[in-house]
Design goal:
seven-stranded mixed beta sheet, alpha/beta
Length: 267
């Protein structure tokens, strides 16, 4: 078993989607079929059950949408660069199995990457970068002359609005073309979970978004091409009836139907 001792606050939140993907794998109708997530959970000596409320199978629904966007981008750009910001212990690289023409970079805090290397191995086409995504010393190691897909799954919520704005400008100034995909949470969703999240991980959600047009204004080089409310995702339909019924009810209330939205931008 791998011992966990130095992952606190935002770093500890990586276990939320990991646990959700493992739960999804063990279900009768798995959305992701992520056997790697299940094996990683088995190899970590920490009680993850406290994350059940946050993770669950919604994590698999969100990840599936990012997977589909990634596959679509690779199909159109066979020499692309994929940059996964705040990758945690996500196994997208193994779920997608990109061709050798694709170069893939997973970026996260040094403590997270140290743990990640217990379960994943680098290749000529796949690299793990031990850096905070808000630092300024990691982008230069990534090719800038190829189409880039940048993914930030469950990450920007833990940054301030100004940090997100600064990072977006750095990315659009560095990469000449491509896309960026990330998710945002509205204030009601944050208010409903912030106390429990603080108790279980010590993490604080810092960026709430009510009006998506405010996100659009952060960077004039970005053009929004798709918005998907998580509870309206086509992959929700693959969940058992009980889940579909609950999520369907939530979409009837304005403060819940847009609790999390997945955004995709051209850059």
């Amino acid at each position: 078993m791998t011992q966990i001792s130095n992952l606190k606050e935002e770093k500890e939140t990586l276990f939320i989607p990991l646990y959700g993907k493992a739960i999804d794998y063990r279900s009768k109708k798995s959305i992701l079929n992520d056997s790697t997530a299940n094996e990683v959970v088995k190899g970590i000596d920490v009680d993850l059950s406290k994350h059940r409320r946050f993770g669950g199978r919604v994590s698999a629904v969100r990840a599936k949408q990012y997977d589909e966007w990634t596959k679509e981008f690779i199909a159109k750009n066979n020499n692309a660069v994929i940059v996964h910001l705040g990758c945690g212990l996500d196994a997208r690289i193994t779920r997608i199995e990109p061709p050798a023409s694709i170069t893939w970079f997973d970026v996260d805090f040094p403590e997270v990457i140290c743990l990640r290397k217990t379960f994943f191995s680098e290749t000529n086409e796949y690299k793990m970068m031990a850096n905070s995504i808000t630092s300024e010393n990691w982008l230069e190691a990534i090719p800038s002359d190829r189409p880039a897909l940048i993914i930030a799954e469950g990450v920007f919520e833990y940054l301030s609005k100004e940090e997100v704005k600064t990072l977006l400008h750095r990315l659009t100034n560095y990469f000449s073309n491509g896309q960026i995909a990330f998710d945002v949470m509205n204030p009601s969703s944050i208010d409903s979970r912030k106390e429990t999240l603080k108790e279980t991980t010590g993490a604080t959600i810092r960026w709430a978004v009510d009006d998506i047009s405010e996100v659009d204004k952060l960077n004039p080089k970005l053009k929004r091409v798709e918005t998907i409310p998580l509870f309206k995702s086509v992959f929700i339909k693959k969940l058992p009836f009980g889940y579909r019924f609950v999520f369907g009810l939530l979409t009837l209330f304005s403060k819940y139907k847009n609790s999390m939205r997945l955004l995709r931008y051209d850059l």
